[in-house]
Amino acid sequence: MHARVMTGLIQPGKMDEMIRIYRDSIMPIAKEQKGFKGGILLTDSTTNKIISISLWETEADMKAGAASGYLQQQIGKVAPTLAAPSVREAYEVSVYEE
User: Fold this and answer.
1) Any idea what the CATH number is for the domain that residue 83 is in?
2) Whole-angstrom Cα distance, residue 62 to residue 18?
3) Total domains in the fold of the chain
4) Is residue 98 in some structural domain?
5) With a threshold of 0.90, does the pTM exceed it?
């Protein structure tokens, strides 16, 4: 399993909007992507920092979203709430339990 981790800063007063977009628009579309296993949005309203973690069955599935334009479309949805460009990293999941 693989994970895409994105961190970012949200503009003051825009956190609720960011959460709504993530929950109501990004997650439903993510669930339709091949190999998508789940997503988590972590927020800190004190610092306006967010961490988005999406889990993918394979590295190829994770990379396919970036190659197809899917990922950029989703980032575009939240771009108006960001205080700075987000940082994107990829990891192999070594331990995962539910």
Assistant:
1) 3.30.70.100
2) 22
3) 1
4) no
5) yes
CB 98 within 8 A of CB 38: no
What is the H or E stretch that residue 77 is in? helix 70-78
Mean pLDDT, rounded, of the chain: 95
Within-domain flag for 97: no
**The two three-digit tokens of residue 36, written as one number:** 């998508």
User: From residue 83, how far is each of 8, 34, 41, 74, 80 by CA, in Å?
Assistant: 8, 31, 17, 16, 8
Distance of CA 76 to the CA centre of its chain: 12
pLDDT at residue 87 in the model: 95
Q: Cβ–Cβ contacts within 10 Å for residue 50, how many?
A: 23
Q: Tokens for 31?
A: 């669930």
- Residue range of the domain that includes 32: 2-92
Q: What is the pLDDT of residue 61?
A: 95
Query: What's the sign of the alpha-carbon dihedral 88, 26, 78, 13?
Result: negative
Q: How many CB atoms lie within 10 A of CB 71?
A: 20
